[in-house]
Each structure stands twice: as structure tokens, then as C-alpha cells.
Amino acid sequence: MRRVVPFVMVLVVGTILLYTVVNYLPPFGSFPQRKLGAFENQSVGQRILENAPRETGSANVVTSVVWDYRAYDTMGEATVLFTAVCGVLMLFLATRRQE
Amino acid sequence: MMAGMTTIVRTISRLLFPFMFLFGVYVLVHGHLTPGGGFQGGVIIAASVVMLWLAYGLEQSPIGFKLFRTEVLEAIGGLTLATVGLVGLVMGVGKFFGHVLPLGNLGSLFSGGDLPILNIGTSIKVAAGLILIFYAMLRKIAGEEL
Amino acid sequence: MSLNYIVAMLLIALGLYCLLLKRNLIKIVIGLGVMTDGIHLFLISMGYREGGIAAIVTGEMLENAAGFASAAVDPIPQALVLTSIVINICIVALALSMAIWVYHHYGTLDPSEIRRLRE
Q1: Residue contact C73–A83, C-beta within 8 A
Q2: Taking the complete model, does pTM exceed 0.95, yes or no?
Q3: Distance CA B115, CA B97 (A)
Q4: CB–CB of C82 and B133 under 8 A?
Q5: Which domain holds residue A41?
Q6: φ/ψ (deg, to 5) at C102
Q7: Rounded distance between C-alpha atoms, residue C24 and residue A22, angstroms
């Protein structure tokens, strides 16, 4: 009987998510025509698509976003990977101290 | 002592290892022309080494593995990223990760500024990191000391 | 009423169910992975253009810059999801390592048993 409350919570959250997705989102496949307040006619993705092959010189626009326009975030992600490897090695390969 | 698998699996994995390694290097180097890049190529390279460990057992695999050398490789890959960023700040343009190398023709292999150097640096880091994670977990499961 | 959004929300709800109501630490970690997959699918589906091509300049698009910019899909959610996948690897690796350590120390993988054994 104690497990009824989490189950009801999962059902409520699932219903709220499905209702929001069906009614309150812009239709599927309408990429640049979203009214975002100040950027009514252009979004950031459209501006990057127009300028990326000329400014960065690489044919892959996703790679140029990851390594040129947002290079600092990729360096932070490499640091997170390094921290995780340090954590796993510390859990398994630490030498035993003499008590 | 971790037991390996049968003779068929050992032969096939030993024959398949160079092609997997070459495919990982291909995905990595052509990161600015086709879908792929540093992280994807590094994961494929790590998967090819782990396949040999799973087929042969941890001690009798044909790859000579030393712990200290792999840790140094991972640190070198991580330092390459920071060094390229700082060189861009100091030398060429006045901002972090600025363009230093020349942009070539669109669509050829030698294009994109310092994108290929960054791709190679992160692939070394990701491959060494994943090999270390798998080595630590396999050594624990095979019954060695903690 | 498109299929992408509905399946993404169903995956998030299923992952939440596994995270809250299962009695095995490994199954809880699997629920975490399913929930992350649902979020990635939702993020990528937000940047789709009707009848669009992939965001890579190849073939006859090499000299047609304006035509490429009006026919390609959004590249920014794909870069976000690349970073998120790598961080998901780190989270699952650390969670499984801690689960192995807990099993070695307590002898069981049940969260309520572990909470009872700690006192």
C-alpha cells in the first residue's frame, strides 16, 4: 500500500507531459518560424547555417558549432570525462593502506 | 583468472581488430567533412581494444597494456585542448580559441583551421579514458584484489 | 499530434517509473538511461524543418550558399545532444561502480534492505 503514492505521481506527471506536448507546442517541422519575442524573423540556428562554411572553413556545420562557436563548452565536457575516469580509478585501483 | 572464449571467437576478433582500428581513425580524421569527429572516433578505437580483452582474457591478450603509459596519454590529450585555446588567445586573434592555422578550400581534407588538431586531441583522451574504465571494472570482476 | 513528441514523453514517463518503483540498483540505473534517451529524442525533434536535408555541405551544395541555408535542419540541438551523450556515459560509469562497491560491502542490492542494514 505504500507504493501507491509514487505510482500515482508517475501517472500524473505523464498525463501533464502528454497534454502539454499535444496542445501547447508549435507544430512539428516548423523550424525558423517561431515567434521568440525580439527574434521574430531570425533564430540563432538560421544565422549559423548562413555564415558557418564561410567563417570556419569546414563543411560540417555541427562540428563547427561544437568546436568553433561553442568550443569552451566542449572543453568543459572533456574535463567532466577526465573527472569520471579519475573517480572510477580511485574506487577500484587504490592501493591498500596498512591500518 | 578471467577465462577467454572459444577458438572461433579468438580467431575472428584477432582478424577483425586492424579493420576496426582503421575505421575508427577514418571517422576521426574526416570529422569536418562527414558526420563524426573526435568523440565518436575515440569510442570506436576503445571498443576495438576491449573486444580483444573480452575474447582472450585480461592476461593473455596480444595487446601489451601498461597502466602508467595510458594515464599519461589521457593527460596529454586533455592538455592539447587547453594549449590550442591559449595559443589562439596569445598569438593570432585576441579571443580564446581564435583561428591560427589558415582556412583551406571548402571540402578538402586540409581545411578548417585548427579543427583537425582538436579532433585528434580529444580522440586520444576519450579512447584512453574508456580503456582505463574498462580495465578497472574487468580487473574487479575477474576476482583480483580490490 | 506528431509521433516523435509522444514517444519522447512516453520514454520519460517509463524512465521515471523505473527510477521510483524498482527494487534493484541495476534496474534503477537502466531507468536513468531510458529517461536520458527520451530527453535527447525530444531535443532533436524540436529542430526539424519540413523536407529538410542534413546540415553538411556536400555535392552540388558547395557553391549554393543561400539554397543550403534555406533547406537544412537546425544544427544547434544536435551539438547539445552530442555533449549530453558523453556526460551520460560518465554518470552511468560512476553509478555502476558505486553499485558494485555497495554489493561488495552490504551483500544485497535492494535499497530498502540497505537502508535497514545501515541502522
Answers
A1: no
A2: no
A3: 10
A4: no
A5: 8-92
A6: -65, -40
A7: 34
What would the pLDDT profile of B73-118 be if each residue is shown by its tens digit? 999 999 998 888 888 877 766 667 777 777 777 777 788 788 889 9
Closest CA to C82 of B126, B21, A47, B60: B126
Q: Return the CATH number of C3-117, one of 1.10.1410.40, 1.20.120.660, 3.60.15.10, 1.10.287.3510.
A: 1.10.287.3510
Contacts of A31 in chain C (CB under 8 A): 47-50, 52, 73-74
Q: What is the DSSP string of C52-94?
A: -B-SB--GGGTT-HHHHHTTB--SHHHHHHHHHHHHHHHHHHH
- What percent of chain A is helix, strand and coil (3-state, nearest 5)? 65, 5, 30
Task: Report the SS3 class of residue A39.
Answer: strand
Amino acid in position C30? I
The per-residue pLDDT for range B19-43, each reduced to its tens digit, is 999 999 999 999 888 898 899 999 9
For residue A48, is it within any domain? yes
Beta carbons of B106 and C54 less than 8 Å apart: no
User: Residues 6 or more apart from C36 whose CB is under 8 A from it?
Assistant: C15, C84, C88
Q: Indicate the residue of C62, C96, C100 with minimum beta-carbon distance to B107.
A: C62
Contact A21, C35 (CB under 8 A): no
ipTM: 0.86
* Main-chain dihedrals φ then ψ at residue A39, nearest 5 degrees: -95, 75
CB atoms within 10 A of CB A67: 29
